[in-house]
TrEMBL record:
Its main location: membrane. InterPro entries: MFS, MFS_dom, MFS_Exporter, MFS_trans_sf. Gene3D superfamilies: MFS general substrate transporter like domains. It is found in: Cell membrane. Coiled coil: none annotated. GO terms for molecular function: transmembrane transporter activity. This is Putative transporter. Keywords: Membrane, Transmembrane, Transmembrane helix. SUPFAM superfamilies: MFS general substrate transporter.
């Protein structure tokens, strides 16, 4: 429970500021490009931090790493009480990115070691529920407060207080030693044991720990990153686009939309994890999730472009959030099932790097699109980018089918 509360509180601090910072940058005279760069730099530093987080965890343990990460998510943003100049925006974004990167990798690696392999689906789904609930509640909070006339300084103080709560809860995180990779030996490699070839190929569980062993995570990583690019546009520019259409209550409406996206992610992630455990197979929701995400982005584009009723925007948000949740959980489970248990930390790094790289690239590139072609163009491009994920997933499935056919033919000849 302390782990769950700490993670939920840390994501709350992150969620409060995620849509607020780009909106505040624009409100203080910054450009859409700078607003997108704030998110982009945040995610770029996040990814860079994720690449070294496993070594930090091996050196210091889960508890200290997660405690410092929680503090960095909220405290640096207090500098915005004094300045929203471009250098300040980018430096603060970078500092917060360090905290977010370390937290993301450490939390999933910790969960992967706390629970047995047969419960990874439910465990990842459960952590997804609490993260999703935190995002659902706190993504709109900052926007609602600003719309109600509360000063930006109060919003920044609130985020810092929540980050401090997360850091305090990290003190009670279970003290366990992270698993360390062991040298490969034939007697410990399931690939050389008498395991069904069909099961090994379809489940893709067995991979020898080798230098290029993480290549097996490429397809789910591309799928996740493609949807995350769209999320970068949604989190950075949906508030500004809705406020542009409705200056009076636009921020509150956008906050509700972000909350709906979070709720849909919460539900679909848990459902995805439960189905994966019941069917003993991951990836069943990947293609439906990618399709739903693309439809949701296209729907947002249509509503904003043609001034359609708001209930259609709600439907688009539900589609995008549900699809994003399915892709998140299935990508995580596929990565976990493709690597040895001692490489769960590396798989967690790949998952988080894919998520955050996609979000950062999406925020920057689609921010440039928004600056030149408006928010409608940004959301339309986001919908198109999801097609990259669909293509990667289809190619991966075709490759697996061919491998299965070859192995089946080989078995038949014996």
């Amino acid at each position: 429970m302390p782990t769950i509360i700490a993670v939920a509180a840390a994501f709350a601090a992150f969620s409060i500021l995620l849509p607020v910072i780009p909106l505040a940058v624009i409100s203080h005279g910054g450009t859409d490009t700078l607003a997108g760069m704030a998110t982009g730099v945040f995610m770029a530093v996040t990814v860079a931090t994720q690449l070294i987080t496993n070594r930090l965890v091996q050196r210091f343990g889960f508890r200290p790493v997660m405690l410092v990460a929680a503090l960095l998510l909220g405290l640096p943003a207090l500098w915005h009480m004094f300045s929203f100049a471009a250098p300040s925006v980018l430096v603060v974004a970078g500092l917060r990115g360090i905290g977010f990167g370390a937290l993301c990798v450490a939390q999933y690696a910790l969960v992967g070691q706390l629970v047995p392999a047969g419960m990874l689906g439910k465990a990842s789904g459960l952590i997804g529920v609490f993260v999703g609930a935190s995002q659902m509640v706190f993504l709109p909070v900052g926007l609602w407060l600003l719309d109600a006339g509360v000063s930006m300084n109060i919003v920044l103080l609130l985020a810092a207080a929540v980050a401090l709560l997360a850091a305090v809860m990290c003190i009670w995180i279970p003290s366990i030693e992270p698993e360390r990779p062991e040298p490969w030996s034939p007697e410990h490699d399931p690939a050389v044991k008498k395991v069904s070839l069909r099961r090994r190929v379809t489940m893709r569980v067995v991979r020898r720990p080798r230098r290029k062993g993480m290549k097996v995570t490429i397809a789910p990583a591309i799928a996740l990153a493609s949807v995350s690019m769209g999320y970068g546009a949604v989190s950075s520019f949906l508030p500004a686009s809705v406020r542009e259409a409705d200056p009076i209550s636009g921020a509150s409406i956008a906050g509700m939309m972000l909350s709906i996206v979070g709720l849909a992610q919460l539900v679909s992630r848990y459902i995805s994890g439960s189905i994966a455990d019941r069917q003993n197979k991951a990836g069943l929701g990947m293609l439906p999730g990618l399709a739903l995400s693309s439809v949701g982005m296209a729907g947002m584009c249509a509503v904003i472009a043609w001034g359609l009723p708001l209930w259609l925007l709600i439907m688009a948000a539900v589609c995008f959030g549900a699809g994003f949740g399915l892709v998140q959980n299935d990508a995580l489970l596929e990565m976990f099932l493709r690597v040895p248990r001692e490489r769960l930390g590396s798989a967690s790094t790949v998952w988080n790097a894919s998520f955050d790289t996609g979000t950062g690239i999406g925020a920057i590139t689609l921010g440039m699109v928004a600056a030149s072609h408006g928010y409608t163009g940004a959301f339309l491009c986001g919908a198109i980018l999801v097609m990259l994920g669909i293509t990667a997933e289809v190619i991966d499935r075709v490759r697996r089918s061919r491998a299965l056919a070859k192995l089946s033919a080989s078995e038949a000849l014996r």
